[in-house]
Amino acid sequence: MQQDIDLIRSHVIEMGKLVEKALETCLGAIEHNDRQLAYVVILRDRHIDELEETLESLCQRFLIKHLPVASQMRFVYSVIKINTELERVGDYAKAMARRFLSVSDLGAHAFHPKLIEIANLAIPFLRNALQAFAEGDAELAKATREKEKERAIDNLRYEIHRDLIQLHINGELPSEALVPLVTIVSCLERVANQASNICEEVLYMCTGEDLRHDYPHVLRVLFVAEHDACRGQIAVGISNALESHRILFSSAGVASQPLDPKTVQFMTEKGIDISGQTSKYLSQILDLKDYAIIVSLCEEAERALPSLPSRPVRISWKVPDPSKLEGTEAEVQAAYQKTFQFLETHIRELSQAILGNDVEKEKEN
C-alpha cells in the first residue's frame, strides 16, 4: 500500500511541475512576445492530460486493490480532487497561450506590467500548495490558503481591467483584443483560486478538517431565458461580481446558443469577464428542485418551466434581449445598458433579501 501511495504522490508532484512550467513558459511568451513559446505551451498540454488520466487510473486501482480506510481514504480522495485542479490550471495556461496568439495576430501587445505581479503571487501560491501536499504539511497549506484570501490578486486584476478598458476607450486597443487580454488576467486569478482549493484538499488529507465549504448552506439561483446566450449570462456575470459565498448563480436556456460575442464585449467593458462562462439547455438540469429560486427572464422561459412544488420559489423578470436588436451601434449599446441596469438593480435587491443584510458586508466576510 505504501509503495502505491508513493507512486501516486510522485505522479501528482510530476504533474504539478509540468503545470507550473506551463504557466512560467506562457508568461515568458507574453512578456517577450514570443509566439513559439506559446505554441510550446499548447503542444505540451497533452502531457498534462495524459498524467491526469494516469493518476485517475492509479487512484481507481488503489481503491479496488486496498479498500482503504481513514487516512489512506482521505489521501486518495484528495488526490482525485487535486488531479482535477491541476488539470484545470494546465487548461488555463493553454487558454492564455491561445489568447496571446490571437492578440498577437491583431498586432497588439498582450503584455501588461501588472501581469507579472499577479503571476508572482499566483504561481508561488500553487508551488506552496504542491509543497504542502508533497510534505503533508497542513500548516503550510493553511497559511497559503489564508494568504490567497487577502485579495491582493483581485485588486491587481481590477487595476488591469481598468487600464485595458481605458486603452480601448482611447482607441489604443482594438475591440477584438480586449476580451482575450481580460481572459488572460482572469486565468491567472483562477490559478490562485485553484491553489487555494488544493490547500483545502491537503488540509482534509492531513487532518480530516473540511474547509471546502466555509458556509453550511449555499443557496442556488437559476436564471432562465429563451437562449442562454445573452440575458442569463449577463445576470450570472453581475451576480458573480457580488462575490457572495452563500449564493451560487447559474443560467440555462429553453434552447441553447453559443455565448454571444457582443455580450462578452459589453460585459468586458463593464469590467466583468464572462468569457469563461458556457451556455446550457434547461433540459441539462437534472433536478430543478435543487434550486431555491428560479428567475424567468422572458415569457418563453416562463412557459417552458414545468409545474413544481413550493420549492423552488418562482420569480418573473421580463427583460429584453439586446443581442436580438437590429439598429445602429448606439441603439444596440443603449439596449445592452438598459438590460444591464435592470438586472444589476434587481439582482442586488434579491441578494440583499436573501442574505438579510448588506451585500457589501457579505462580500467583506
From TrEMBL:
It holds the Pfam family LMWPc. It comes from the Eukaryota. Residues 219-353 form the Phosphotyrosine protein phosphatase I domain. GO terms for biological process: intracellular phosphate ion homeostasis; negative regulation of phosphate metabolic process. NCBIfam families: phoU_full. This is Phosphate-specific transport system accessory protein PhoU. It comes from Geodia barretti.
